[in-house]
Design a protein that fits this description.
By secondary structure, the chain is of the alpha/beta class. The chain contains three helices and six strands; from the N terminus they run ββαββαβαβ. The protein has one domain: STAS domain (Transcription Regulator spoIIAA). Strands 1, 2, 3, 4, 5 and 6 form a six-stranded mixed sheet that branches. Helix 1 runs parallel beside helix 2. This is Anti-sigma factor antagonist.
Length: about 170
Amino acid sequence: MPLHDSHPLPRTELPGAHARCFARGEATVVELHGEIDVFTVGEISGDLDAATAQPAPHVIVDLRPVSFMDSSGLDLLSRAHRRARARDGGIRLISDQPRIRHLLRLTALDHIPLSATFDDTPAVGAPSRTAHEGGGAVRTPRAVPVGRCRGCGGGCRWGAGRSGGRSR
């Protein structure tokens, strides 16, 4: 005889994440929505992987609709950056959220070009302002990379960043 009546717990829906992809000029925009964490990153990784799988991909990742991101989301962005660079392309990020921009800066992903809006986003591959520069001087790409990118680990033209071209 059971000591108590046991009932199954009601199913709890976790906040999800999803992606919306569309073309904007010559770039593919991947607009990420919701909470990007270890439980939801699988729901959007296929969309970002498909966008960066093309030869010389030009991808803009819009993070404005993201309400939360953990290390799984940061890993997804880093992987997309490495994949695009390996195919002679690039990615740009859009976020107007101070905490997302701060997270990118703290985790050294601020070497990926970052803008607050589409209007501030030049074509992928053009010189850009990065989050830690605070809109200061424009960093231009180097013809021959100096040092190794902290994000992709290999000669990324945006990777010298704050290290001044020295490997870390």
